Structure formats: structure tokens, C-alpha cells
TrEMBL record:
GO terms for cellular component: lytic vacuole; vacuolar membrane. Its main location: membrane. This is Multidrug resistance-associated protein 1-like. The chain crosses the membrane at residues 107-128, 158-175, 235-253, 259-278, 336-365, 733-753, 773-794, 858-886, 962-982. The lineage of its organism: Eukaryota, Metazoa, Chordata, Craniata, Vertebrata. GO terms for molecular function: ABC-type transporter activity; ATP binding; ATP hydrolysis activity. Keywords: ATP-binding, Membrane, Nucleotide-binding, Repeat, Transmembrane, Transmembrane helix, Transport, Vacuole. Residues 434-658, 1049-1248 form the ABC transporter domain. It comes from Neomonachus schauinslandi. It is found in: Vacuole membrane. It is a multi-pass membrane protein. Residues 120-402, 729-1003 form the ABC transmembrane type-1 domain. SUPFAM superfamilies: ABC transporter transmembrane region (SSF90123), P-loop containing nucleoside triphosphate hydrolases (SSF52540). Belongs to the ABC transporter superfamily. ABCC family. Conjugate transporter (TC 3.A.1.208) subfamily. CDD domains: ABC_6TM_MRP1_2_3_6_D1_like, ABC_6TM_MRP1_2_3_6_D2_like, ABCC_MRP_domain1, ABCC_MRP_domain2.
């Protein structure tokens, strides 16, 4: 026989070996020279390459080893474990002193202990940069003094000019090192937190999984971890801003004396107002986070259940729900926007108010005080330095407040309850493979027991069947063996490793071979034997790439039966000791089911020597079992061999006899049934010779499309149209007015200084001084009004743009055909609603505003300096040429790096979402470590792009600021060369403007690039607009309100394919039903049975022929008019989180009495009445707190409510037991007796009563 492949155990070591481009594209940073590292010249090759061609992932430099997720995550996890242990010790100490102690382990302490050394290094860089920023005004002061006095020794002026250049250049180098370390440290913190969230998600107990939905956990990983990263990037401002304010005030004291205290008083007055604003922001952030959670959760469910929405025409209802949440979000955003108006006013007007009050008090203290050029321009430079810390401080305080909310959410999640290892003994070495002794289980410790007093001993190598009615606890027994349930009493023991086949097959988005190997080593011979035994070889022959074909998310491009067989093959190949099989035959036809039993599970199958526990509704298999466990209401009703139970248990005997009689009846009717079905047989069932993947489904998941080339102006135009042209022109006018008034203020001060020199010539100097101050104040007031107007206009316009683009995106997504969702990972779609909409909501309008402001700033600065020093224009021309050259190279590379970074985010969300949906399977196989490693890989890919982006920004900043420094040097040099021909006021004005232009030019280029790269978000949001949509929901031609009244369905030479480049999935189908006729449709897996029902609903459109229902060609009416008049019970029982009532009747059309009536008909009334909240019982995400059988019965109840003339049953009873199936079939025959029924089934008894 074949040897079993090595399993991936929980304790296996995993060593990551770099391969491919990673091994080749080593990072040259460490080997670069000191100068190259300081100026980032080592990165130039990427910039040049990006200019020559669009960059690809393989072109980027890899991370330094210490920055990678493989190093960062384990170190942080170790510190987190230490913090958890320290917290436990503190609790024990407090408890010994009888003191309450509810403190949780602190994420902040764990992060500090992990990153403290690099955070201290970052802080030191910031200290040096801040000190140097105050050196520039002092040198400028000396230059103005030099120009006022003109000493004989003129070389000192050149010395000052050179010193000014050296200082600003040093500041540039140190500040860019600070930014580099700061940004990468913040990214590492985010990486560490994501790694911990992912690991925790694999350990959550069922109670915790109910508390934190998939959407909420994804939001923790994207929004909250991002919030933590953003705060870390600005954390040093908490001390740096007060330090800069103190430094500025002490230097101002030297210039203006006690008058500075008046400025301090203004600051003291403003700080509490900012604190109030921060408190308000905290509340807004909290409500915004809740809204985002709700939206992501609902979107996640909509996208997973999109087929149900389309079949039941529920899109408008769920669209309305999303828009309601979105409107709440926009209300919060509007409030935040109005707070931003205040912030903008603070940023612009506080330095002005401080200077106005300070100058005013300076005059009042002594009439002899005059404003000289030295005092004015040194003071103004210091006031300008004050501007940023004064703006940053309240912002960072607000960010701290917001991040505290995110930290609380993260800590709540990280400290939530995990699965208890003591739920099951896995190191058992006794005689039995599995043993239950007086064991009771619940889904949570405080809940009602689901399984009660289990006493089961399962010998090694036994084949055990677990049978019982829907909701009797069959699947719960398997969950208890896996340790997924909370043990309340007793003992449960398990010996050896486990493989698990879930009732709803979990398939990964990877190639089919990887789905089966599931991390084990390839052993070709054994692998082929598994494929043959699991009846997968005929399918592989039909696949375009055999077992190398990519399977889509949730296995969307394979049939239900194929999913179960792949899931079974995965379990068989794992080589485990115990196999837990949860109804693996439900979705396969009888022939395939028989083969699977004989070749895999039965006494002659591959697993014949293994312990096998099979949950099944197929009672014909019971005779071949070593042990049968009959479950009833969570208890073992009967247990023994087949013969023992037949002799003891009358109920089982009756059930088996009924089943046997049904089989006999089927045999007697077989000939007549086949003869009367000839139309269907010839047209459809002949395809059964091809047990293959539907031809129409031979597609793979599409990778994230990464745009290349420059930004299209049409994208910006689309945003501006959504923004509203009125708001666009008003905001431009407001910002133009703001900049003109700002220039006017400085020119007014310059003129004031000139006149102050000649104050003795003016008799009414006191009056003139007062007038000058009043006009200066008036200009400041005008500037404040322009600032407020601009911020208000921007808020209104950005809200309009956000609302319009989000509504268009949602509308486009809901109108896309189902094949789009089958070929595009859900992570990509959610990414557009989260990350891309966040950029549109918050960032894009900020970048546009900043760019417009910087453009006006630069133009104003060049004009002011050019007016004072005409030769300056000659020096600026070559520098401007260099600016644009650098910009062209940088933008081409940076744009593509950011696009790569955007594309690398989707796999993180997709992998995370996939893991959460298959967490039970992952835990059962013991593959947690392998999936944690995969998470590190996808996070690391994003981190590589982020690293290259950070370095590209630093590369740009060093070069742009160097050119800006040359402008400062050039302006200073011209003032020295001008000699006595230039006034000291002009010197001060020119140099102070030149010092500001460095930052303005840097910001101008950076924001231009930000606009280009972030416009990708608008492009991605609008991308679905131009895709092929479904037919309109409502068309001009509408069917009569009573249509269809007969239920006659006619297929005429009907052909269908899933995609233009694929073969036909249905070929020349021609048949006609009579009114109220019952039609059975059978066929092997992949024969096209479900495709037939998809064509009726126009999920798949025709390639030829037509379908006529009661005389109307269905292609001539709107989709909602068609789908709303058809009824279906689908193969996959999809439920949404919310109440049971909402799941039955989301449109709120029916009364409670009607709901109870259909629940009784579906045999669910007794179960629902036993629930504490009855119809208002909360269904968890995906309906996980109901069994699969119960979910199918809820879907049946939906169909009974929505009674129409035509009903399609698509494997509607595959997951319920024979007895309940019998009752349900009786209900369907009775309630839908006057309807045309098309039944798609694998169980022959489900279609035995069909007319044809």
C-alpha cells in the first residue's frame, strides 16, 4: 500500500525559504554608503526603472529582515503573552488582598516593550530636527541685522547665507531619517497587531465568534489597526508640539519681552476649546466605527448571499438598508467636517491672533516700542513655526482619543474567550479511539445543554453512523469530538489526529491540487489513488488545467457535489487516525455516493483501518456499520449494531421498512417513469455521461487589476462632477482670497516696518500706529472668513461627492451578473466599499485642497520674492526645471508602487475572510500554524509595497527640499549682494518667504502625486460602471399582474453558456410542461441540472433559443418582473444575520400568523416556540446557530410564504433526514398542488412522485 503523507501538525516547525524574485531582489540599503543612505540614492534605480516602464511586484526591493512580518509578529506575540501573564499575576495579588481588579492586559504595554528602542531612536531624530528648525530664524535675524548696519567686513553676510543653507540642509536630512523610521515603525506596529488578531481569530470560542462577526473582525484588522498605525506616525507630536511652542515663546520673549504673555494667554484660552472639539470627535468616531462595522457586516453577508438576493428580488430592500447605514455615516462625517472648519480656523487664525495681540500689547507697554525689521520678521518666522504645532497638538490629542476607542475594541477582542483545551483530552492512550463519559455540552458555558449525558465508546478502526432527525444533535456530536463545544460535565477523550469533512464543504481559493494536499507533501501514487476513490478523475479530464485549475472563493466554480468530493479527498489524503464525516453524500448522486462509500469509507475502502464517524440520512448504509448511534433531542436514544437496533427499536424498524417500501415502489415504477420522461431524458440526461465540472463554470478567480500609466483627467472630472461645480468654483475663490489676504498681511507688515524707521517724521505716529494695527487686524479677520468659507464649502461638496459615488458603486454592484461574483474575490469588492470609499470620504478632498493651497502659495511666494529681488527669477527657472524633472520620475514610480500597495491589501482581507469561514476545518486538521504563516506572507507582500512607497517619498523629499534649500541660499545670497540698495524689511520678507517655499514646493509635488495615486480609488469605485450588467430590473414591457396563471414552461432549442469563450452548458434543450405538472430533473454531478434553473431565472442568459412561460418570452421582460413571479428553494441554504422573522420576510409583507402557519407546515413551529425570543430569535452570521437541515427548512418556509405558480426545488432536502424529508415532500405536494414544480434532486425518492 501507499505510505501516508506527512501531516502538518500544530507543533510543526515551518521554515520560510526565500524563492523567486525575493531571493534575487535583495535590498541594497544595508550595503549602501553613509551618504547614499542619508540621501536615499540607493533607491534611485527603482525610480529610474519606474520612469522607463510600469513597475511590477518583482521590481521592488525586499524588506530588511528586521522589518518583515516573519520577525516582527513572533517578537510581539511573545511580549503580548508576557503582558497576559503579568496581568494574571496582578489579578492574583489583588485578589489576595480582596481588592477588585478588572484591568485587562494592555496592548500599549506590549507594543512599548516590543518597539521601545526604535521609538526612542525616532524621538531623538525629532529632537534634533526641532532644534534645527529654530536655528533658521536666528540666522535670518543676524542677516537682517547685517543688512541694517552693513559692517565693513562684508564676508560675514556670505557666512550667514552659507550657514542658513547648511542648517536647512541638515534639518532636511535628519527630518527625512525621522520620517523613514517613524513610518516603518508604525507599519510594523500595524503588522504586529494584524498578526495577533489573525492568530486570535483561529482560537475564538463559539461565544466569542457570535460576539464578533466576520465584518467586525475584518474592521478590527483594517480600520482599528490602521488607526493605531496613524497615531504611531504622529505620536512624537505629543511632546514635540509643546516643545516647539515653548521654544518659540522663549525666543519671542527675547524679541518682544512680556508682550509674549498676551500671546500665551490666547493659547491658554484656545486649548480648552480644542479639548472640547477633541471630546466631540471621540463621540463621532465611536458612532462612526459602529456604522462602519454594521455596513461591512451587512455588505459581507450580501456579497456571500448575492444569489439569494437576485433569486428573490431582494436587492432594493438590502440596498435601502445599506443606504440607511451610509446616511448615518455621512451625518457623522458632516459633523466632523464642521469641526474641521473650526480646526482650519485654528490653524490659520491662532498664529495671527497671537501676533496681533502680542504686537498690540507690545505697543501699549511702551509708546517708544517700535517694530523693526529684525523684530517683525524674526517674530513672524517664529509665529509661522508655531502654526504647525498649534494645529498638530489638538489633532494628535484628538487622534489619541480616537485611538483609545480602537485600542479598547482591540483589547476586548484579544482578551475575549478562547476555546478551552480542556474541553477534550487529546493525549488519551486507552483502548478506544473516542470515548464520552456522562458528557454534556453547550455552545456556551451559561447556555442550555445541546448534548446531554453522552456515554459512547468508539473502538479504533470502527465505522460508526450517527443518525437522527433534523436538529437532534448529530453534527453537534462531531463538534464535541473536535473540542468546538463547551464541556459542561463529564469526560471526552480522543486518541490520534483528526480529519473533518464539514456538512457545508469549505473550499479554498487556490488550485484544486492545493485544496486536496492541504499543506501535506505530494505523494503522487497515493494522491492519484485518492482522486480515483473520490470519483474526481473524470472531473479533472474536463477541467482546462486538470488539478492545476484554480478554484474560486467558496468553490463557486464547481458544483455542490464536487465541493463535497474535494473536501472528502482532502480528508482522505491527510492520513489522519480519525475521520469525522458530516453527511458527505448529501450533495452527490446515488451512483457517486455508492462509489464513495465502497472505495473510501466502507469495509473495502482506503479508510477501512481508520476510525470513521459518519453523520448520514442514508439509512440503506446502516447495515454495513459497526456501530449505530441514534440521536434524539441531544441525547443518545439508541446505540448498538444494526441487528441489535432492529431487534430493540421499533421506531427504527418502522423507518427502515418505510424506506424499503419506498425503494420497492421506485423499482416497480422505474420503467414507466423513464418512458414517460423521454423528452427530458433525450435533452438533458444524456449529458450525464459527462460527470464533469459544468463547462460554463470553467473559469478561475480574477486577480486584482492594477492600473498602469498616468492618471486620466476624466477620473478627476468625475469626482468634481459628483462634488458639484458650484462648490468647486466657490472653494477655489475662497482659497484664492485666503492666499491674497495672507500676502497682503505680510506686505502690510513690511510697509509698516519701513515707516517705523521714520517715525520722527510723522507728528501723529501714535494714531498711524493704531491705524496700522487695525488694518492688520482687519486683514486677519478677512482671512479667517475666507478660511471658514473654504472649509464649509469643502465639507458640503465632499459629502455630496461621497454620497453620489457610494450610491453609484452600490447600484453598479447590485446590477452586476452573478458570474462577476463567482470570478472576483469578495475581498476586492469589500475593499472598494472600505478602503477606497474611506479615501474618497476623508482624504481625497483634503489632498485637492492642499494642492490648490500649495499652488497658490508657491505662485505668491515667487511673485513676492521676485518683486523684491528680480534676479531671484533667473535662479528659480533652472530650479523649477529640476523640480519638474524630479517630479516626473517620482510620480511615474510612486503612482505604480501605490497601486501595487492597493492591490496587495485585497488578498489580506480575502485570506482573512476565507480563514474565518473555514476556522472549524482548519482547527480540526491542526493547521493553525500553516495559516498563520500564510497570513504573514500576504501581510508581508503589502509591507514590501509600503516600504518601497515610504522610501520613494523620502527620496523625493530629500531632493525637493535640497532644491528648496538652494532657493533659500540664493535669496540670502542676493540680499547680501544687493548691499545697501535693499531695505532690511525686504530682506526679512524675502528670506522668511524663501524659508516657507521649501515646505510649500515639497507639499505641492507630494500632493500632486497623492492626487494621482489616490485617484485610483475613484477609478476603482467607478470601474464597475462600465462592466456588463444584468438586464434591467423593470422594462417598459411588463407582464399582467396575474401572470403566470397556468404555469406552462416551454424551452425551445435553448442554449446557454456561462461566458462567450466557453462551451455550451446547455445544448438545444426543447421540452414543454403542462400546467400544474410535476417534473423531475435528475442527472450526474455537473450535468447541468442547476444551470437549467439558473436559466429560468435568467441568472445565465441564453445563447440561442428561448424560454416561454404562459405565452411570454422571458427575455422580453424585466428581471424583477420575472424572478418575482417564480419561486425557488435553493441548494445552498443561505441565511442572513438578524431575526428569524427578517430572514423569512425581509420586505415585511406578511403577518405573524402567516409566518407561524408556514413554520408549522415546515415542521419548525415546535422548535421556534422553544426559543426564548421565538420569531425574534437572533440568527448569527451565515445562520451558524441553526443546523444545515434547519436552515433548509427556513428556506422552504420562505418559499411557502412567497407562493407562486412555478416552483423550482434545487436539492431542497439534501441536508435533512429521511423522515423529515418525507414530511416535507408531503407538505410540498399538498401546498403546491396547483403549481408547476421542477424538482432537481439526487435522491430518487424526491422525484418519484413526479408526473414526468
Amino acid at each position: 500500500m501507499f505510505s501516508i503523507p506527512r501531516r502538518w501538525g500544530a507543533g510543526s516547525n515551518y521554515e520560510r525559504v526565500p524563492e523567486g524574485p525575493e531571493a534575487q531582489k535583495c535590498n541594497p540599503e544595508k550595503s549602501a554608503s553613509f551618504f547614499s543612505r542619508m540621501t536615499y540614492s540607493w533607491f534611485s534605480r527603482i525610480i529610474v526603472l519606474g520612469y522607463k516602464k510600469p513597475l511590477e511586484r518583482e521590481d521592488l526591493f525586499e524588506l530588511n529582515e528586521s522589518d518583515s512580518s516573519y520577525i516582527v509578529c513572533p517578537i510581539f506575540e511573545k511580549q503580548w503573552r508576557k503582558e497576559v501573564l503579568r496581568n494574571q499575576e496582578r489579578q492574583e495579588v489583588k485578589a489576595s488582598f480582596h481588592k477588585a481588579h478588572a484591568r485587562k492586559p494592555s496592548l500599549v504595554y506590549a507594543l512599548w516593550n516590543t518597539f521601545k528602542f526604535v521609538l526612542i531612536q525616532v524621538a531623538l531624530f525629532r529632537v534634533f530636527a526641532d532644534i534645527l528648525s529654530f536655528t533658521s530664524p536666528l540666522i535670518m535675524k543676524q542677516m537682517i541685522i547685517f543688512c541694517e548696519h552693513r559692517p565693513d567686513f562684508g564676508w560675514s553676510g556670505y557666512g550667514y547665507a552659507l550657514a542658513l543653507f547648511v542648517v536647512v540642509f541638515l534639518q532636511t536630512l535628519i527630518l527625512q531619517q525621522y520620517q523613514r523610521f517613524n513610518m516603518l515603525t508604525s507599519a510594523k506596529i500595524k503588522t504586529a497587531v494584524i498578526g495577533l488578531i489573525y492568530k486570535k481569530a483561529l482560537l475564538l470560542s463559539n461565544v466569542s465568534r457570535k460576539r464578533f462577526s466576520t465584518g467586525e473582525v475584518i474592521n478590527l484588522m483594517s480600520a482599528d489597526a490602521q488607526q493605531l498605525m496613524d497615531l504611531t506616525a504622529n505620536l512624537n507630536l505629543l511632546w514635540s508640539a509643546p516643545f516647539q511652542i515653548l521654544m518659540a515663546m522663549s525666543l519671542l520673549w527675547q524679541e518682544l519681552g512680556p508682550a509674549v504673555l498676551a500671546g500665551v494667554a490666547v493659547l491658554v484660552f484656545v486649548i480648552p476649546i480644542n479639548a472640547l472639539a477633541a471630546t466631540r470627535v471621540k463621540k463621532l468616531k465611536k458612532s462612526q466605527t459602529k456604522n462602519k462595522d454594521k455596513q461591512i457586516k451587512l455588505l459581507n453577508e450580501i456579497l456571500h448571499g448575492i444569489k439569494i438576493l437576485k433569486l428573490y428580488t431582494w436587492e432594493p430592500s438590502y440596498k435601502k438598508k445599506i443606504i440607511e447605514i451610509r446616511e448615518q455615516e455621512l451625518e457623522v462625517q458632516k459633523s466632523a467636517g464642521y469641526l474641521a472648519v473650526f480646526s482650519m480656523l485654528t490653524l490659520t487664525c491662532i498664529p495671527f491672533l497671537v501676533s496681533l495681540v502680542t504686537f498690540g500689547i507690545y505697543f501699549l507697554l511702551d509708546e517708544g516700542n517700535i517694530l523693526t525689521a529684525t523684530k517683525v520678521f524674526t517674530s513672524m518666522s517664529l509665529f509661522n513655526i508655531l502654526r504647525l504645532p498649534l494645529f498638530d497638538l489638538p489633532m494628535v490629542i484628538s487622534a489619541v482619543v480616537q485611538t483609545r476607542i480602537s485600542l479598547n475594541r482591540l483589547e476586548d477582542f484579544l482578551n475575549t474567550e478562547e476555546l478551552h483545551p480542556q474541553n477534550i483530552e487529546t493525549n488519551y492512550i486507552g483502548d478506544h479511539a473516542i470515548g464520552f463519559t456522562n458528557a454534556s455540552f453547550s455552545w456556551d458555558k451559561t447556555g442550555i445543554p445541546v448534548l446531554k449525558n453522552l456515554n459512547i465508546k468508539i473502538p479504533e478502526g470502527a465505522l460508526v453512523a450517527v443518525v437522527g432527525q433534523v436538529g437532534s444533535g448529530k453534527s453537534s456530536v462531531l463538534s464535541a469530538i473536535l473540542g468546538e463545544m463547551e464541556k459542561l460535565t463529564g469526560v471526552v477523550q480522543r486518541k490520534g489526529s483528526v480529519a473533518y469533512v464539514a456538512q457545508q464543504a469549505w473550499i479554498q481559493n487556490c488550485i484544486l491540487q492545493e485544496n486536496i494536499l492541504f499543506g501535506s507533501i505530494m505523494q503522487k501514487q497515493f494522491y492519484e489513488q485518492v482522486l480515483e476513490a473520490c470519483a474526481l478523475l473524470p472531473d479533472l479530464e474536463q477541467l482546462p488545467n486538470g488539478d492545476q485549475t484554480e478554484i474560486g472563493e467558496r468553490g463557486v466554480n464547481i458544483s455542490g457535489g464536487q465541493k463535497h468530493r474535494v473536501s472528502l479527498a482532502r480528508a482522505v489524503y491527510s492520513g489522519a487516525d480519525i475521520y469525522l464525516l458530516d453527511d458527505p453524500f448529501a450533495a452527490v448522486d446515488v451512483h457517486v455516493g455508492k462509489q464513495l462509500f465502497e472505495k473510501v469509507i466502507g469495509s473495502s475502502g482506503i479508510l477501512k483501518n481508520k476510525t470513521r464517524i459518519l453523520v448520514t440520512h442514508n439509512l440503506t448504509l446502516l447495515a454495513q456499520m459497526d456501530l449505530i448511534v441514534v440521536m434524539e433531542s441531544g441525547r443518545v436514544a439508541h446505540m448498538g449494531t444494526y441487528q441489535e437496533l432492529l431487534s430493540k427499536t421499533r421506531n427504527l424498524t418502522n423507518l427502515l421498512q418505510a424506506f424499503s417500501e419506498r425503494e420497492k415502489a421506485h423499482a416497480l415504477k422505474r420503467v414507466s417513469v423513464i418512458n414517460s420522461r423521454t423528452i427530458l431524458k433525450d435533452q438533458i440526461l444524456e449529458q450525464n455521461d459527462r460527470p464533469s465540472l459544468d463547462q460554463g463554470k470553467q473559469f478561475s478567480m480574477k486577480k486584482e487589476k492594477i492600473p498602469i500609466g498616468g492618471m486620466k483627467f476624466s477620473i478627476i472630472l468625475k469626482y468634481l462632477q459628483a462634488f458639484g461645480w458650484l462648490w468647486v468654483w466657490l472653494s477655489v475663490a475662497a482659497y484664492l482670497g485666503q492666499n491674497l489676504v495672507g500676502i497682503g498681511q505680510n506686505l502690510w507688515l513690511s510697509a509698516w516696518v519701513k515707516e517705523a524707521k521714520h517715525k520722527n517724521e510723522f507728528r501723529e505716529w501714535k494714531q498711524i500706529k493704531s491705524n496700522k494695527l487695525n488694518i492688520y487686524g482687519l486683514l486677519g479677520l478677512m482671512q479667517g472668513l475666507f478660511v471658514c468659507s473654504g472649509a464649509y464649502i469643502l465639507t458640503r461638496g465632499s459629502l455630496a461627492a461621497s454620497r453620489t459615488l457610494h450610491t453609484q458603486l452600490l447600484d453598479n454592484v447590485l446590477h452586476l451578473p452573478l458570474r462577476f461574483f463567482e470570478t472576483n474575490p469578495i475581498g476586492q469588492i469589500i475593499n472598494r466599499f472600505t478602503k477606497d470609499m474611506f479615501i474618497i470620504d476623508i482624504r481625497f478632498h483634503y489632498y485637492l485642497r492642499t494642492w490648490v493651497n500649495c499652488t497658490l502659495d508657491v505662485i505668491g511666494t515667487v511673485l513676492v520674492i521676485g518683486g523684491a529681488l528680480p534676479l531671484f527669477i533667473l535662479g528659480v527657472i533652472p530650479l523649477v526645471f529640476l523640480y519638474f524633472t524630479i517630479q516626473r520620475y517620482y510620480v511615474a514610480s510612486s503612482r505604480q508602487i501605490r497601486r501595487l500597495a492597493g492591490a496587495s491589501r485585497s488578498p489580506i482581507i480575502s485570506h482573512f475572510s476565507e480563514t474565518l469561514s473555514g476556522v472549524s476545518t482548519i482547527r480540526a486538521f491542526g493547521h493553525e500554524q500553516r495559516f498563520i504563516q500564510q497570513n504573514k506572507e500576504v501581510v508581508n507582500e503589502n509591507l514590501v509595497c509600503f516600504y518601497n512607497n515610504v522610501i520613494s517619498n523620502r527620496w523625493l523629499s530629500v531632493r525637493l527640499e535640497f532644491l528648496g534649500n538652494l532657493m533659500v541660499f540664493f535669496a540670502a545670497l542676493l540680499t547680501v549682494l544687493a548691499g545697501s540698495s535693499i531695505d532690511s524689511a525686504i530682506v526679512g520678507l524675502s528670506i522668511s518667504y524663501a524659508l516657507n517655499i521649501t515646505q510649500s514646493l515639497n507639499f505641492w509635488v507630494r500632493k500632486a502625486c497623492e492626487i494621482e495615486t489616490n485617484a485610483v480609488s475613484i477609478e476603482r469605485v467607478c470601474e464597475y460602471e462600465n462592466m456588463d450588467k444584468e438586464a434591467p430590473w423593470i422594462m417598459s414591457k411588463r407582464p399582467p399582474s396575474q401572470w403566470p396563471d397556468k404555469g406552462i414552461v416551454e424551452f425551445i432549442n435553448y442554449q446557454a453558456r456561462y461566458r462567450d469563450d466557453l462551451g455550451l452548458a446547455l445544448q438545444d434543450i426543447t421540452f414543454q410542461t403542462h400546467g400544474e405538472e410535476k417534473i423531475g430533473i435528475v442527472g450526474r454531478t455537473g450535468a447541468g441540472k442547476s444551470t437549467l434553473s439558473n436559466c429560468l431565472f435568467r441568472i445565465v442568459e441564453r445563447s440561442g433559443g428561448k424560454i416561454i412561460i404562459d405565452g411570454i418570452d422571458i427575455s422580453t421582460i424585466g428581471l424583477h418582473d420575472l424572478r418575482g413571479k417564480l419561486n425557488i428553494i435553493p441548494q445552498d441554504p443561505v441565511l442572513f444575520s438578524g431575526t428569524l422573522q427578517m430572514n423569512l420576510d425581509p420586505l415585511d409583507k406578511y403577518s405573524d400568523s402567516e409566518l407561524w402557519e408556514v413554520l408549522e407546515l415546515c415542521h419548525l413551529k415546535e422548535f421556534v416556540q422553544s426559543l426564548p425570543k421565538k420569531l425574534l430569535h437572533e440568527i448569527t452570521e451565515g445562520g451558524e446557530n441553526l443546523s444545515v437541515g434547519q436552515r433548509q427548512l427556513v428556506c422552504l418556509a420562505r418559499a411557502l410564504l412567497r407562493k407562486t405558480k412555478i416552483l423550482i426545488l434545487d436539492e431542497a432536502t439534501a441536508s435533512i433526514d429521511f423522515e423529515t424529508d418525507n414530511l416535507v415532500q408531503t407538505t410540498i405536494r399538498k401546498e403546491f398542488s396547483d403549481c408547476t414544480i421542477l424538482t432537481i434532486a439526487h435522491r430518487l425518492h424526491s422525484i418519484i412522485d413526479s408526473d414526468r
